[in-house]
Amino acid sequence: MSVTTIYKCDRCHGEQDTPVQFWNVGVVVTAWAGREYRKEYPDKTMDVCRSCCENMGLVMRLPKHPELTPPPTLEDLIREIVQQEIQQ
What we know:
Blueprint: E1 7-8, E2 15-16, E3 22-32, E4 36-49, H1 50-55, H2 74-87
Antiparallel strand pairs: 1-2, 3-4
């Protein structure tokens, strides 16, 4: 028997099959008034995908990579050589 785990974003409801680039976002209150005060709210959390974290400004947007043109095939190179020979 196999088990499949699906990770679902609580914000956009997108699904993925890996926890990579998936965060648990929550609320924590910290005050500094002579002494440290910290209050966590475990019931105020949600699981959020990378895209939603970027849209909320919580993580830096990944840079866009320019589209790479595929290298010419052997057939393309042969055609180019034949065209050059014909033109000469």
